[in-house]
Design goal:
Elements (H helix, E strand, L loop, with lengths): L4 E2 L5 E2 L30 E3 L6 H18 L2 E6 L8 H12 L9 E7 L4 E7 L8 H17 L3 H16 L1
Parallel strand pairs: 3-4, 4-5
Antiparallel strand pairs: 1-6, 2-6, 5-6
Keywords: Signal
Protein name: TPM domain-containing protein
Pfam families: TPM_phosphatase
Length: 170
């Protein structure tokens, strides 16, 4: 059975300054319900097309190193749309469907960015909630991600979050 994910951080709405400008708006027909259309592609799943190849490669290498070092699985996901679903439910459903964590450890982490809705979430498996608390995840979002996102630097915000979370897990 796949590991259940808890709500790590309440959904945070980003300010409108620069946060959706990197990608054009999408219609309802391009929504990607967590339980259906989005498929696990690897450690970085950029369905919103906000990351360049070099960034994806760096992130993949960092996430692979983290998993080899600690056993903890972390994935980065960007979506075009949440399809009207709450980001907490979307992220949890996606994490459970993909089975992000080691069986019996519930130690997976999903960083989800929905740039068009200006939302971000860090979902943490139960096995890591003592290390990656709600406060710690909120701090990563507020300090590492949102300031960069507001400046239009999605790649930098995601890379900073992965670095911060990896440091906490190492």
């Amino acid at each position: 059975m796949k590991a259940p994910f808890r709500h790590a951080v309440l959904p945070l709405v980003l300010a409108a300054t620069g946060c959706g400008s990197a990608a054009p708006p999408f219609t309802e027909s391009t929504a990607q319900p967590a339980g259906e259309a989005l498929h696990l592609q690897g450690r970085v799943n950029d369905a919103a097309s906000i990351l360049d190849f070099e960034t994806e490669s760096r992130l993949t290498a960092q996430l692979q190193t983290l998993e080899k070092k600690t056993g903890h699985q972390m994935v980065v996901v960007t979506v075009r749309s949440l399809g009207g679903e709450e980001i907490a439910n979307y992220t949890r459903t996606l994490a459970n469907r993909w089975g992000i964590s080691r069986k019996g450890h519930d130690d997976g982490v999903v960083i989800l960015v929905a740039p068009n809705e200006r939302k971000v979430r860090i979902a943490v498996g139960y096995g890591l909630e003592k290390v990656l608390t709600n406060a710690a995840c909120s701090d990563v979002i507020q300090s590492d991600m949102i300031p960069r996102f507001r400046a239009g630097d999605f790649a930098g915000g995601i890379e900073a979050a992965v670095a911060s979370l990896s440091a906490k897990l190492s």
